[in-house]
Protein: Class I SAM-dependent methyltransferase
Amino acid sequence: MKETIYDFDDLLEMLDSLLREPTQFWNNFYSDREKDVPFFTNSPDENLVSYFENGLFKHGKVLELGCGAGRNAIYFAEKGFCVNAVDLSQESLKWAKERAIEKNVNVNFINKNIFELDIEEATYDIVYDSGCFHHIAPHRRMSYINLVKKALKPNGYFAITCFFQGGELGGAEISDWEVYRLRSLKGGLGYTEEKLRSIFRDMKEIEIRKMVEVQQPNDIFGVPDFLTALFQKY
Structure:
């Protein structure tokens, strides 16, 4: 492994190596499907369902970042969308593919780091993220924003569900600088409405709110420790 920094990409790679959970971590995480993890359910996010019910999402092409076991990607496919769903973990995608077969829907699952995607500009009507962003270290935040903006068509939607700061399920209450002092994301960074509004200020805000709690089992998923937001590209 080279350890000389020649350019900005080398710097990002070095910082990644200090902070990112390795692929094997996520493979192990998804290998035990019986453990008590709320989002292991096979139901879509309640906010995603609400976007359809409110007529905001209708048809088109969607890119899901960090799709996990596929519950939201499958829901999009059931609604008639062309779906590309990306995740770093082979184990999560194995599970997602099994679920898609059970639901008799077609989803293009992609096993890649989201920052290694080769995306044609203005390809997608929607970019969806449920649980990926809070695992993105601060030094990769601009790369993430640029990825979203490149992927979206003009007037396309970006929807995100992430840890609320100080929530019971996660949401570390630490500053960006503290991430590097600790060399840790503390299991996932927590966000507030104000911070999301500031980070995605170059996009039009449609809605930012706490996720509505939904008692399980149910055909939709909702926990109060998550923050949801919907933005639109100008």
